[in-house]
Protein backbone atom coordinates (compact mmCIF):
# COMPACT_ATOMS: atom_id res chain seq x y z
CA UNK A 1 0.00 0.00 0.00
CA UNK A 2 2.83 2.34 0.82
CA UNK A 3 4.44 1.66 -2.51
CA UNK A 4 1.20 2.49 -4.25
CA UNK A 5 0.91 5.79 -2.40
CA UNK A 6 4.49 6.57 -3.31
CA UNK A 7 3.89 5.81 -6.98
CA UNK A 8 0.84 8.02 -6.93
CA UNK A 9 2.83 10.80 -5.31
CA UNK A 10 5.56 10.39 -7.89
CA UNK A 11 3.09 10.43 -10.75
CA UNK A 12 1.47 13.48 -9.28
CA UNK A 13 4.83 15.23 -9.13
CA UNK A 14 5.65 14.18 -12.70
CA UNK A 15 2.44 15.66 -13.98
CA UNK A 16 3.16 19.04 -12.46
CA UNK A 17 5.61 21.49 -13.99
CA UNK A 18 8.33 20.67 -11.45
CA UNK A 19 11.62 19.21 -12.68
CA UNK A 20 12.99 15.95 -11.28
CA UNK A 21 14.40 15.85 -7.76
CA UNK A 22 17.96 15.50 -9.12
CA UNK A 23 17.67 18.63 -11.23
CA UNK A 24 16.07 20.60 -8.45
CA UNK A 25 18.67 19.41 -5.94
CA UNK A 26 21.46 20.90 -8.07
CA UNK A 27 19.58 24.06 -9.04
CA UNK A 28 19.66 26.97 -6.63
CA UNK A 29 16.45 28.32 -5.10
CA UNK A 30 14.34 25.40 -6.33
CA UNK A 31 10.77 24.88 -5.21
CA UNK A 32 10.14 22.12 -2.68
CA UNK A 33 6.40 21.63 -2.25
CA UNK A 34 6.97 18.23 -0.62
CA UNK A 35 8.96 18.66 2.59
CA UNK A 36 9.86 14.97 2.74
CA UNK A 37 11.48 15.20 -0.67
CA UNK A 38 13.79 18.00 0.44
CA UNK A 39 14.65 16.21 3.68
CA UNK A 40 15.52 13.13 1.60
CA UNK A 41 17.85 15.23 -0.55
CA UNK A 42 19.56 16.52 2.61
CA UNK A 43 19.77 12.97 3.98
CA UNK A 44 21.40 11.44 0.91
CA UNK A 45 23.68 14.43 0.33
CA UNK A 46 24.91 13.93 3.84
CA UNK A 47 25.56 10.21 3.34
CA UNK A 48 27.53 10.89 0.16
CA UNK A 49 29.48 13.67 1.87
CA UNK A 50 30.28 11.34 4.79
CA UNK A 51 31.73 8.66 2.53
CA UNK A 52 33.66 11.16 0.38
CA UNK A 53 35.19 12.86 3.43
CA UNK A 54 36.02 9.43 4.87
CA UNK A 55 37.92 8.52 1.70
CA UNK A 56 39.79 11.85 1.62
CA UNK A 57 40.67 11.72 5.34
CA UNK A 58 41.93 8.14 4.88
CA UNK A 59 44.05 8.96 1.85
CA UNK A 60 45.65 12.13 3.27
CA UNK A 61 45.81 10.74 6.09
CA UNK A 62 44.16 12.96 8.68
CA UNK A 63 44.42 11.65 12.22
CA UNK A 64 43.06 12.20 15.69
CA UNK A 65 40.52 14.63 17.06
CA UNK A 66 41.34 17.05 14.24
CA UNK A 67 39.88 14.62 11.70
CA UNK A 68 36.71 14.14 13.72
CA UNK A 69 36.24 17.86 14.38
CA UNK A 70 36.89 18.81 10.78
CA UNK A 71 34.31 16.25 9.64
CA UNK A 72 31.63 17.62 11.99
CA UNK A 73 32.38 21.21 10.95
CA UNK A 74 32.44 20.53 7.21
CA UNK A 75 29.42 18.25 7.29
CA UNK A 76 27.25 20.62 9.31
CA UNK A 77 28.62 23.71 7.54
CA UNK A 78 28.12 22.37 4.01
CA UNK A 79 24.55 21.28 4.71
CA UNK A 80 23.78 24.59 6.43
CA UNK A 81 25.18 26.50 3.46
CA UNK A 82 23.19 24.26 1.08
CA UNK A 83 19.77 24.85 2.60
CA UNK A 84 20.19 28.43 3.75
CA UNK A 85 22.18 29.98 0.90
CA UNK A 86 21.92 27.66 -2.12
CA UNK A 87 18.29 26.57 -1.78
CA UNK A 88 17.20 29.44 0.50
CA UNK A 89 14.44 27.40 2.14
CA UNK A 90 12.45 28.69 5.07
CA UNK A 91 14.02 26.84 8.02
CA UNK A 92 10.95 27.29 10.22
CA UNK A 93 8.88 25.20 7.82
CA UNK A 94 11.14 22.27 8.70
CA UNK A 95 11.15 22.90 12.43
CA UNK A 96 14.21 25.18 12.54
CA UNK A 97 17.80 25.06 11.30
CA UNK A 98 18.71 22.49 13.95
CA UNK A 99 16.26 19.91 12.58
CA UNK A 100 17.79 20.26 9.12
CA UNK A 101 21.36 20.27 10.42
CA UNK A 102 20.88 17.03 12.32
CA UNK A 103 18.90 15.19 9.58
CA UNK A 104 20.78 11.93 8.94
CA UNK A 105 23.85 13.10 10.87
CA UNK A 106 24.48 9.96 12.89
CA UNK A 107 24.19 7.65 9.88
CA UNK A 108 26.52 9.90 7.93
CA UNK A 109 28.98 9.95 10.85
CA UNK A 110 28.97 6.15 11.03
CA UNK A 111 29.53 5.92 7.26
CA UNK A 112 32.38 8.41 7.52
CA UNK A 113 34.08 6.49 10.35
CA UNK A 114 33.82 3.20 8.48
CA UNK A 115 35.38 4.54 5.27
CA UNK A 116 38.02 6.55 7.15
CA UNK A 117 39.07 3.54 9.26
CA UNK A 118 39.05 1.09 6.32
CA UNK A 119 41.13 3.30 3.99
CA UNK A 120 43.51 4.36 6.75
CA UNK A 121 44.07 0.80 8.00
CA UNK A 122 44.52 -0.51 4.47
CA UNK A 123 47.12 2.07 3.53
CA UNK A 124 48.94 2.97 6.74
CA UNK A 125 48.58 0.02 9.13
CA UNK A 126 52.21 -1.10 8.94
CA UNK A 127 53.78 2.37 9.21
CA UNK A 128 51.46 3.44 12.00
CA UNK A 129 52.01 0.25 13.98
CA UNK A 130 55.80 0.49 13.60
CA UNK A 131 55.90 4.14 14.63
CA UNK A 132 53.90 3.38 17.78
CA UNK A 133 56.35 0.73 18.99
CA UNK B 1 43.95 -5.59 6.62
CA UNK B 2 41.84 -4.86 3.55
CA UNK B 3 40.49 -8.40 3.49
CA UNK B 4 39.25 -8.31 7.09
CA UNK B 5 37.62 -4.89 6.94
CA UNK B 6 35.97 -5.49 3.57
CA UNK B 7 34.76 -8.87 4.80
CA UNK B 8 33.14 -7.15 7.79
CA UNK B 9 31.43 -4.63 5.48
CA UNK B 10 30.19 -7.53 3.37
CA UNK B 11 28.95 -9.41 6.45
CA UNK B 12 27.14 -6.34 7.63
CA UNK B 13 25.48 -5.78 4.22
CA UNK B 14 24.39 -9.42 4.18
CA UNK B 15 23.00 -9.37 7.72
CA UNK B 16 21.18 -6.09 7.04
CA UNK B 17 19.62 -7.54 3.89
CA UNK B 18 18.79 -10.77 5.68
CA UNK B 19 17.22 -8.87 8.56
CA UNK B 20 15.13 -6.72 6.25
CA UNK B 21 14.18 -9.75 4.16
CA UNK B 22 13.02 -11.67 7.23
CA UNK B 23 11.12 -8.66 8.55
CA UNK B 24 9.47 -8.26 5.15
CA UNK B 25 8.51 -11.92 5.18
CA UNK B 26 7.10 -11.81 8.69
CA UNK B 27 5.84 -8.23 9.00
CA UNK B 28 6.02 -5.77 6.12
CA UNK B 29 4.10 -7.84 3.60
CA UNK B 30 1.22 -8.66 5.94
CA UNK B 31 -1.99 -6.82 5.24
CA UNK B 32 -2.46 -5.89 8.87
CA UNK B 33 0.90 -4.11 9.01
CA UNK B 34 0.39 -2.27 5.73
CA UNK B 35 -3.04 -1.10 6.78
CA UNK B 36 -1.83 0.11 10.16
CA UNK B 37 1.23 1.81 8.71
CA UNK B 38 -0.79 3.70 6.12
CA UNK B 39 -3.27 4.70 8.82
CA UNK B 40 -0.54 5.94 11.19
CA UNK B 41 1.13 7.93 8.44
CA UNK B 42 -2.12 9.52 7.34
CA UNK B 43 -3.04 10.41 10.89
CA UNK B 44 0.42 11.77 11.72
CA UNK B 45 0.37 14.07 8.73
CA UNK B 46 -3.16 15.20 9.47
CA UNK B 47 -2.32 15.84 13.09
CA UNK B 48 0.83 17.76 12.21
CA UNK B 49 -1.12 19.96 9.83
CA UNK B 50 -3.85 20.53 12.36
CA UNK B 51 -1.31 21.44 15.03
CA UNK B 52 0.37 23.86 12.65
CA UNK B 53 -2.84 25.67 11.86
CA UNK B 54 -4.56 25.56 15.23
CA UNK B 55 -1.70 24.81 17.60
CA UNK B 56 -1.62 28.25 19.20
CA UNK B 57 -5.34 28.97 19.14
CA UNK B 58 -7.22 28.71 22.38
CA UNK B 59 -10.33 27.29 20.76
CA UNK B 60 -11.53 24.46 22.97
CA UNK B 61 -13.16 22.55 20.14
CA UNK B 62 -9.95 22.35 18.16
CA UNK B 63 -8.00 21.27 21.18
CA UNK B 64 -10.47 18.51 21.85
CA UNK B 65 -10.25 17.34 18.26
CA UNK B 66 -6.46 17.31 18.38
CA UNK B 67 -6.54 15.38 21.63
CA UNK B 68 -8.90 12.83 20.17
CA UNK B 69 -6.72 12.35 17.14
CA UNK B 70 -3.63 12.03 19.30
CA UNK B 71 -5.33 9.31 21.28
CA UNK B 72 -6.27 7.42 18.11
CA UNK B 73 -2.75 7.77 16.75
CA UNK B 74 -1.34 6.50 20.02
CA UNK B 75 -3.51 3.40 19.84
CA UNK B 76 -2.55 2.72 16.24
CA UNK B 77 1.12 3.21 17.04
CA UNK B 78 0.81 0.71 19.87
CA UNK B 79 -0.83 -1.83 17.59
CA UNK B 80 1.89 -1.27 15.00
CA UNK B 81 4.69 -1.91 17.49
CA UNK B 82 2.87 -5.01 18.69
CA UNK B 83 2.69 -6.40 15.15
CA UNK B 84 6.42 -5.77 14.75
CA UNK B 85 7.45 -7.02 18.16
CA UNK B 86 7.14 -10.78 17.71
CA UNK B 87 9.26 -10.94 14.59
CA UNK B 88 11.76 -8.48 16.07
CA UNK B 89 12.31 -10.87 18.95
CA UNK B 90 12.83 -13.79 16.59
CA UNK B 91 15.25 -11.82 14.44
CA UNK B 92 17.00 -10.48 17.54
CA UNK B 93 17.71 -13.99 18.78
CA UNK B 94 18.92 -15.17 15.38
CA UNK B 95 21.25 -12.19 15.08
CA UNK B 96 22.67 -12.56 18.56
CA UNK B 97 23.61 -16.12 17.63
CA UNK B 98 25.15 -14.95 14.35
CA UNK B 99 27.05 -12.17 16.12
CA UNK B 100 28.54 -14.54 18.68
CA UNK B 101 29.62 -16.81 15.83
CA UNK B 102 31.41 -13.94 14.05
CA UNK B 103 32.83 -12.82 17.38
CA UNK B 104 34.46 -16.20 17.90
CA UNK B 105 35.82 -16.21 14.33
CA UNK B 106 37.46 -12.81 14.82
CA UNK B 107 38.36 -13.39 18.48
CA UNK B 108 41.63 -11.72 19.44
CA UNK B 109 42.23 -10.53 15.91
CA UNK B 110 43.14 -6.90 15.14
CA UNK B 111 41.03 -6.10 12.09
CA UNK B 112 41.88 -2.42 11.65
CA UNK B 113 44.01 0.46 12.85
CA UNK B 114 42.09 3.45 14.17
CA UNK B 115 43.23 6.87 12.98
CA UNK B 116 42.13 8.35 16.33
CA UNK B 117 42.24 7.35 19.98
CA UNK B 118 38.71 6.41 21.06
CA UNK B 119 37.21 7.78 24.27
CA UNK B 120 37.83 5.63 27.33
CA UNK B 121 34.28 4.26 27.49
CA UNK B 122 34.41 3.29 23.81
CA UNK B 123 37.79 1.57 24.20
CA UNK B 124 36.03 -1.38 25.87
CA UNK B 125 34.26 -1.94 22.57
CA UNK B 126 36.99 -0.98 20.11
CA UNK B 127 39.60 -3.06 21.95
CA UNK B 128 37.34 -5.96 22.94
CA UNK B 129 39.19 -9.27 23.36
CA UNK B 130 42.37 -7.84 21.85
CA UNK B 131 45.81 -8.47 23.33
CA UNK B 132 48.11 -5.61 24.34
CA UNK B 133 47.54 -2.01 25.41
CA UNK B 134 47.64 -0.33 22.02
CA UNK B 135 44.19 1.27 21.92
CA UNK B 136 44.56 2.25 18.27
CA UNK B 137 44.04 -1.41 17.43
CA UNK B 138 40.45 -2.10 16.50
CA UNK B 139 38.34 -5.18 17.13
CA UNK B 140 35.71 -6.77 14.90
CA UNK B 141 32.74 -5.67 16.98
CA UNK B 142 33.49 -1.93 16.72
CA UNK B 143 33.69 -1.92 12.91
CA UNK B 144 30.66 -4.19 12.72
CA UNK B 145 28.52 -1.87 14.87
CA UNK B 146 29.57 1.18 12.82
CA UNK B 147 28.83 -0.66 9.56
CA UNK B 148 25.44 -1.75 10.82
CA UNK B 149 24.61 1.78 11.96
CA UNK B 150 25.25 3.20 8.54
CA UNK B 151 24.37 0.32 6.18
CA UNK B 152 21.21 -0.96 7.85
CA UNK B 153 19.53 2.42 8.00
CA UNK B 154 20.46 3.27 4.42
CA UNK B 155 19.17 -0.09 3.17
CA UNK B 156 15.92 0.43 5.08
CA UNK B 157 15.56 3.84 3.52
CA UNK B 158 16.39 2.61 0.03
CA UNK B 159 13.86 -0.19 0.28
CA UNK B 160 11.24 2.16 1.71
CA UNK B 161 10.93 0.29 5.02
CA UNK B 162 12.08 3.14 7.24
CA UNK B 163 9.29 4.77 9.24
CA UNK B 164 8.20 8.11 7.82
CA UNK B 165 9.46 11.27 9.51
CA UNK B 166 5.98 12.52 10.34
CA UNK B 167 5.12 9.26 12.06
CA UNK B 168 8.32 9.05 14.07
CA UNK B 169 8.04 12.72 15.02
CA UNK B 170 4.50 12.26 16.28
CA UNK B 171 5.50 9.00 17.89
CA UNK B 172 8.32 10.71 19.76
CA UNK B 173 6.18 13.62 20.78
CA UNK B 174 3.65 11.24 22.22
CA UNK B 175 6.20 10.01 24.71
CA UNK B 176 8.30 13.15 24.94
CA UNK B 177 5.74 15.76 25.89
CA UNK B 178 3.79 16.10 29.05
CA UNK B 179 0.33 14.57 28.90
CA UNK B 180 -2.55 16.95 28.45
CA UNK B 181 -0.46 19.47 26.54
CA UNK B 182 -3.51 20.70 24.67
CA UNK B 183 -5.88 20.85 27.59
Describe the model.
The complex is a heterodimer of chains A (133) and B (183). Helices cover 77% and strands 0% of the residues of chain A. Chain A has 133 residues and is mostly helical. Chain A has one domain. In chain A, α3 (35-59) packs antiparallel against α4 (64-86) and α3 (35-59) runs parallel beside α6 (105-132). The longest helix of chain A is centred in the C-terminal third of the chain and has 28 residues, at 105-132. The model of chain A is unreliable at 1-15 (pLDDT under 50). Chain B is mainly α and 183 residues long. Chain B is built from 6 helices and 2 strands, in the order αααβαβαα. Chain B has helices at residues 2-28, 31-54, 60-105, 120-126, 140-159, 165-176; strands at residues 112-113, 137-138. Chain B is elongated and about 65 Å long. Chain B starts with a helix and ends in a 7-residue tail after the last helix. Residues 173-183 of chain B have low confidence and may be disordered. Chain A binds chain B through residues 1-3, 5-6, 36, 39, 43, 47, 50, 57-58, 61-65, 67-68, 106-108, 110-111, 113-114, 116-118, 120-122, 124-125, 128-129, 132, and chain B through 1-2, 5-6, 9, 34-35, 37-38, 41, 111-117, 134, 136, 138, 143, 146-147, 149-150, 153-154, 157, 160, 164-166.
Outline the secondary-structure elements:
The complex is a heterodimer of chains A (133) and B (183).
Chain A: H1 2-15, H2 21-26, H3 35-59, H4 64-86, H5 97-102, H6 105-132
Chain B: H1 2-28, H2 31-54, H3 60-105, E1 112-113, H4 120-126, E2 137-138, H5 140-159, H6 165-176
Antiparallel strand pairs in B: 1-2
Helix pairs in contact in B: 1-3, 1-5, 2-3, 2-6
Amino acid sequence: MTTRTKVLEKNGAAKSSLASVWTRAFTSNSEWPDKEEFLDVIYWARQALGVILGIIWGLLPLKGVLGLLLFVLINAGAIYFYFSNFQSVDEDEYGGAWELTKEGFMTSFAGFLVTWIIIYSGLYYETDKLSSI
Amino acid sequence: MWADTLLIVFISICTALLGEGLTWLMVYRTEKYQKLKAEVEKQSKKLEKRKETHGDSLDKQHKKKIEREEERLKNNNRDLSFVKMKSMFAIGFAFTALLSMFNSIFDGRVVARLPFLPLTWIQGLSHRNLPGEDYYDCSFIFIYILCTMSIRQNIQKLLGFAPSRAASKQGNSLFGTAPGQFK
